[in-house]
Amino acid sequence: MSTASIHKTAIISEGAIIGDNCTIGPYCIIGEHVRIGDNCKLQSHVVLDGHLTLGNACELYSFCCLGKQTQDLKFKGETAYVKIGNNNIIREYVTVNSSTGTGNITLIGDDCFIQSYCHIAHECRLGNNIIMSSGAMLSGHTEVDDNAIIGGYTGVVQFVKIGKMAMIGGYSKLTHDVLPFTIADGIPAEMRVINKIGMERNGKSKETIKIVSDAFKKIIRSTLTLEEATTEIQDIFPDSPEISEIIDFISKSRCGLARKKTN
Question: Pairing relation of β-strands 23-24 and 41-42?
Fold first, then answer.
């Protein structure tokens, strides 16, 4: 039997599963297919619905709404899923929509900090240790890799991918993919520099940062074509896992890179 503390005004549907040591605050509403892990805290007026799985030790603030039906007009009533990992903080008025189509999923990893008024649409996939600043909006099918930071009131277009340890400046419009370890900013956003501080904070050595910086210059600032640049950096840095990650990211880019257009 669950040892959760549930406020008398909360509405818990039959079939919902709530883990041990959870706190469910006033006026929270939890749907019948929701699964909540241990040690979670839901402040007042939280809504959890749909086929939503919430991991352990998450804290959800007032008026966030997770697991509701996708806003994708292609949705035809299929069973749709949201999975949220462990140790996440989700602040006021955040919305996370379910997937579109049977078997698909909207996914958030562990240790993420999703600040107030953010939106995460259908089939988005977020890794671990991600920060979304207040008002950031992710369109459907967006992917965000580990340790990325998205600035406040930034909008991200469908299918765009943001690489590991990348940072997107506030109030940006992101229409193309952003390489790992870089900073993008603007309307539309373009990659400007490497994320040196972000790499330092995540334990990257000076030598590694120098390698990434040299590769960035060849990809973004040189006159080389993208194919020429990737071939050259692979030849120069054959043993660098960061360069391998950058090259793999480029090879799988669906939206093209967010780099300055040349005449």
Answer: parallel
CA dist 247 and 93 (Å) reads: 37
Which pair of tokens denotes residue 210? 């120098």
Task: Report the mean per-residue pLDDT for the chain.
Answer: 96
Q: Cα-atom radius of gyration of the chain, to the nearest Å? A: 20
What are the backbone angles phi and psi of residue 212, rounded to the nearest 5°? Answer: -65, -40
- Is residue 173 pLDDT above 50, yes or no? yes
* 220-252 b/e (C-beta count within 10 Å ≥ 16 → b): beeeeeeeebbeebeeebeebebbebbbebbee
The string of pLDDT tens digits covering residues 64-73 is 999 999 999 9
Using an 8 Å Cβ cutoff, are 107 and 126 in contact?
A: yes
CB 230 within 8 A of CB 248: no
Token duo for residue 130? 């991600």
Crossing angle for the helix pair 226-236 and 206-216, to the nearest 10 degrees:
150
Query: What does DSSP say about strands 23-24 and 5-6: parallel, antiparallel, or unpaired?
Result: parallel
Q: Domain-by-domain residue ranges, the chain?
A: 5-141, 200-252
Q: Residue 4: helix, strand or coil by DSSP? A: coil
Q: Which CATH superfamily is domain 5-141 in?
A: Hexapeptide repeat proteins (2.160.10.10)
Q: Give pLDDT tens digits for 199-208.
A: 999 999 999 9
pLDDT confidence bin for 221, thresholds 50/70/90: confident
Tell me which H or E stretch contains 67.
strand 65-68
Q: Return the CATH superfamily for domain 200-252.
A: Udp N-acetylglucosamine O-acyltransferase, C-terminal domain (1.20.1180.10)
42: amino acid identity, one letter: L
At residue 260, the pLDDT reads: 81
Do the beta carbons of residue 178 and residue 164 sit within 8 Å?
no
